[in-house]
From TrEMBL:
Record GO biological process: DNA integration; DNA recombination
Keyword Disulfide bond among record annotations: no
One annotated GO molecular function: DNA binding
Entry-linked SUPFAM superfamilies: DNA breaking-rejoining enzymes
Pfam family, one: Phage_integrase
Keywords: DNA recombination
Highest taxon above the source species: Bacteria
Protein name: Site-specific tyrosine recombinase XerC
Transmembrane feature ranges: none
Length: 131
């Protein structure tokens, strides 16, 4: 799958590689900031980096508030779903081979869900258990 890259994002990545990234022959774009300069090993590494910048920006963070690296796929998947993107495409973008794997990253829009609820006043009820 090929996804478009915003010009500003491409420029920021190029600037990082040319001006800030440690010298390395690694094929990976984002590397550890200390030697040995190799790829970031897991989501925890990215979460630590994000946490550093969240703190320096003065953003308050609570457990489970969605201000973590792990929350990014969930936010993106939910936004795509709300924009009408098919689940198969969302799964591919999130890097899942199985469509059902992406469902854990999708949030419900409870306001829209409530608007789908039936109004029981319009349903005629006969005598019996509901009276």
């Amino acid at each position: 799958m090929t996804l478009p890259l915003e010009t500003s994002v491409g420029n920021a990545i190029a600037k990082y590689i040319l001006e800030a990234r440690s010298e390395s022959t690694s094929e990976y774009v984002f590397l550890r900031t200390s030697a040995p300069y190799r790829k970031l090993s897991d989501c925890g590494s990215m979460d630590n980096i994000l946490e550093k910048y969240v703190k320096s920006a003065g953003i308050l963070r609570q457990p489970g508030d969605g201000k973590s690296f792990h929350a990014l796929p969930r936010s993106m998947g939910t936004w795509m779903l709300e924009s009408g993107v098919p689940l198969t495409t969302i799964s591919q973008v999130l890097g899942h081979k199985e469509q059902d794997s992406a469902k854990q990253y999708l949030s419900m829009d409870y306001e829209k869900l409530v608007s789908c609820a039936l109004d029981f006043q319009e349903i005629p009820l006969g005598k019996g258990i509901f009276e």
